[in-house]
# Entry
Amino acid sequence: MSQVLVVAEHDGTVLNPSTSKTVACAQSLDAEAIDIVVFGEGIDAVAAQAAKLRGVSRVLTCQRGENARPLAAIIAPQLAALANESGYRYVFGPSTTFGKDLMPRVAALLETGQISDIMEVVDAQTFRRPIYAGNAIVTVTTPADRTVVATVRVASYRTVAEDGSASIEAITATAQLPTHTRYVELKSEAGDRPDLQVANIVVSGGRGVGSKENFELLYELADRIGAGVGASRAAVDAGYVPNDMQVGQTGKIISPDLYIAFGISGAIQHLTGIKDAGTIVAVNKDPDAPIFEIADIGLVGDLFEVIPALGKLLEK
Amino acid sequence: MNKVMVCLKRVVDYNVRIRVKPDQSGVVTEGVKMSINPFDEIALEEAMSLREQGQASEIFVVSIGPADCQQQLRTGLAMGADRAILIETDQELESLAGARVMLKIIEKEHPDLVLLGKQAIDNDCNQTAQMLAALWDRPQATFASQIETADGSLRVTREVDAGLEVIDIDLPAVVSTDLRLNEPRYVKLPDIMKAKKKPIETIAIGELGVDTAALFEVTNYAEPPVRSKGQMVDDVGSLVAALREKGFSL
# Structure
């Protein structure tokens, strides 16, 4: 009996595409069934979206006031209890900040280890994952007698089709919930642009952009071509853009069809975040910038001249 | 806060270019520069800054690993920690075993706050803080970019994919640190001299009675697929043409 339990990531209204990508990874396990569990409150819409994901058997909803916000200390004991009682062989979450926060806590409660960032399923017990900022790939075998708790590297998987019709069941998980952790607020500057982790095109800026104001150039270009906007760590550290735009080892690992980098030199930690992109375009003043070593198309030039010229050409 | 515990992991320095051994049995670590995991350094800096604000009295650093870890603990002492504990082992511990060992130290030392990096830059697991918090049955605040103290609790700002999440956690607690929390100080020569007199307690891992057996088996280390250099174009027009040639209908 090998069944997979995937924990859904959502914002209360919309199912995060990371969930679909986690399901895609689960499908490569040849498991008998894949269930999704949604923790939250008033999340019927999210459950309905999860039920459409191809290959999912059941969507379990676990609704209570305490679950309104994704606090690991609150959700972990419920998820661990559910995994234990129902005997799931695999418990998977996305390798996003949500999953990274939650899954190790679940693993420890289940007295087992956790595999981080699955990029490939080799067989039912064996997985590949990156280490050293993606500079080496290890093959890891998990013990046969324990639940496999893991996060899935979402950039390695495509979303699944949405033509399924899983059943939706309300459940309660028997667990003592702590009161020592309390949600205060989420400060988000996210606008209408596509989410970096699902955008087909991402336009990205580095220290070379020079200021918060200059980033407007990138936003304009992005809006013209329907792209998401990312940034290097240097640009975030300099305060040009908020942290949620950071692409790289400690930020978001992304896999757009097209990535256009302006004024990004290409530190190895940044390149880790874009290795899975279809086509990488780099524009930089410095002909020796390391990003040119991996770019499919490179242009040595001043981004302040290139971006407006590019905008004009794309208008025609 | 009375006591702050900071976990320091010895890792290959972040400037070292990692190479996989030809027989794919591991990565080359012989003769390579080793350092404190940069995220852990940020954790220690935060402990120092809490003390400078009068919010912490004692700071001790803990590392698990071979005797060579004393070098990193000495650096931690030079940065300002009062004392150090080395849990000595030649075995490379998995995150769960590491968390179990740290829990033993917590049970002995009763810290009010445990600070450690959100991930180690060698295995990039991002697990130990969360596992430690679970085993200890205490709060966790991962990926911290700001920590404010209150009476018996902390308000922590966390870097999450959607922006910045703020949570309150009761002490004692585990906080894992992100890059923008602070900028670690440089160690000055007089501090290095002073650190030589500070105590490092060594505990053989066997004395702790912790199950540290490996659960996972790493069977192969491989080089990642390499992206090769593409074409260089001379102007924006050629750039757009090259994109269209690749099938982008921009």
